[in-house]
Amino acid sequence: MFHAPKTWREETIATALASRALLDYRGSLVTLDMIAELKDAADLDGERKSVITAAVRFDWSHFPDGGNFSRTHFAESAIFVGSTWSGDATFADCSFDQEARFTFCVFDSFVDFRRAAFNEMTVFSEARFGVTFPTLVAGSQAITWFGQARFLGKTYFTGVFFAGAADFPDCVFNEETRLGGLVVGGSFFSLSHATVRGNMHVTASAPMVWLDHITVDSGARLYLDLRRAEVSLQHAQLNEDVYLSYWSGEHGTTAMLSDLCVVERLGGSRVADSVHPRLLAVRGTSLARLVLRDVDLWACRFTGARNLSSLTMVGRRLLPRIRGRLRVADEVGWQRSLGRSSGGWADSYNESAMETRLKATTAADSATADMRAELRGIRSALPEPRAQDVQIIYRTLRTLLEGSGDKPGADDFYYGEMEVRRTAPRHEPLTSGWTQHALVWLYYGLSGYGLRASRAFGWFFILLLLGTFGLHVTTTVAPHSTTAATAVAIPGSPRANGTDTGAPALFPDALLSAFQLSTLPLSRTEPLLRYSRPGELVRLCLVVIGPALLTLALIAIRARIRR
Q1: From CA 210, how far away is CA 189, in angstroms rounded?
Q2: Closest Cα to residue 182, out of 230, 253, 116, 266?
């Protein structure tokens, strides 16, 4: 139709619209004037949209200046398979009553489908968006907008490449939806404020995935297989199961795997250092329906989450192990708010780099104002927790892991809970009175809350040495002992005069007695020494403290063996 005279094209369009015949633009060079002719020939509906009553086909057509189909109502099928767009493609406020197919399309510039209504099956498989824009620090500047779009039929975005940001905020997905094999080279992929009413499968690689305020209705399930993505899941309404897991890149097409390789190699600081999806925040979200599999929780803030005790974690639990124990980001944020050291956290994970990536996405100008407000910085999106918040998080996670049989992980979270109680500042105390606080410090110093055997053994040996010295100074040898029997009576000495009260205890005898009293306080063996009143005090300390330290050491050894 491109080479035909303008009057002939207008007559053909009018006839096709009147008879609902096929408007065939396949293989044509479609200009902006031709699109304007099509819209001008159509009648307007109640929403003042141009109603295209005939089926249209733009298969393998080329749009040299892009195309503006905004406020167009396609009453019949609209097929754009294999079409290429050199300029901006605008379908804002469009309605598709029948099938809409954009398979293998190539969009070189900005793409706008905001507020579009897809009433039947929608297919964008193997499409490529924004491919001519260069890759920048914050991703390509080309943005694909689907904000507030309604997908009422089955929807397929499989094997799609987004050179820029992929923005789907406030969308409605009514039936089965497959966003499979998505590769996002831009700064983020957003499903913020979206509503999922049918089963949705998302398989994607993106620097940042926004799921804030997403709603999953009853009867619908959401499967998220992500790779190298930092995920925000705040204030979500999860009325049905949501599965968040790691996507290894398997079962992808050759083109998709090639795009994935290019993005990950050239992405620079936008690409996360872990291939596993990294959950950032779950504030305001009920976790009873959330299932995590092989998810990186290194930087996850659990503060403000609801039903944390019902969270399901399977597979690998990727949490930072700093100074010999697992930690959560909430504790690190709390410590930093008090001006304390992060314990090596800054070397393990660069929080400032994450904040830079979050701020960089503001350039994308998301379709919803709420999301733009959340992108102003990680401090506003992730508030600093209080000591009580951190303690509750550790206690809940400990109970959760104990129920799943993970005793070593539960022990680490118990240690974290006790550390928060011990180090809480005076303005937010977690212990009632100085007595309980002193007991917590004593428990920490003696055995690391029953989890550090080296401390208990160290204090036991110190007790043994001090007890040996004390017995050596304050006791004498018992008359019936071997040492007393073999002692030689010196003329003029108390022993020779019959007034002997026992020879001074030798150091080996004192050491043996101290060890016996510390390990076998109820032994019925005859004592080697005769105790004076100070000696009785030393003996009492050995009998009480020694077995207690050994018990704490054995408990810690048992906890270590279970790891």
Answers
A1: 6
A2: 253
Residues in the chain: 563
Host H or E run for residue 204: strand 200-205
Q: For residue 458, how many C-alpha atoms fall within 13 Å in the half-sphere facing its CB?
A: 8
Token pair listed for 304: 């403000």
Write down the pTM of the prediction: 0.77
The H-or-E segment that residue 531 falls in is strand 529-531
- Give the pair of three-digit tokens for residue 366: 């998301």
The whole-angstrom separation of Cα 202 and Cα 189 is 11
In what helix (H) or strand (E) does residue 15 lie, and over which residues does it extend?
helix 6-19
- Cβ atoms of 152 and 174 within 8 Å: the answer is yes
Nearest Cα neighbor of 50 from 69, 30, 67, 63 is 69
Give residue 380's Cα distance to chain centre: 18
Which residues does residue 475 pair with via DSSP β-bridges, in sequence order? 531
CA distance 176 to 223: 12
Angle between helices 433-447 and 533-561 (to 10 degrees): 70
Our CA angle for 442, 445, 447, nearest 5°, is 100
Which helix (H) or strand (E) segment holds residue 360: the answer is helix 351-360
- Residue-wise pLDDT tens for the chain (563 aa)? 545 566 766 777 787 788 888 888 899 899 998 898 888 888 887 778 889 999 999 999 999 999 999 999 999 999 999 999 998 999 999 999 999 999 999 998 889 999 999 999 999 999 999 876 554 444 456 788 999 999 999 999 998 988 888 999 999 999 999 998 888 888 789 999 999 999 999 998 888 899 989 999 999 999 999 988 888 898 999 999 999 998 876 655 555 555 666 566 555 444 445 688 888 888 889 999 999 998 988 888 888 899 998 999 887 777 777 777 788 888 877 887 777 665 555 434 444 444 444 444 444 444 344 444 444 444 445 567 888 888 889 999 888 888 877 787 788 888 888 888 888 877 666 666 778 888 888 888 888 888 888 888 899 899 889 988 888 788 776 665 554 444 444 444 444 444 445 566 677 878 888 888 888 765 555 466 677 788 788 888 888 888 888 888 888 888 777 66
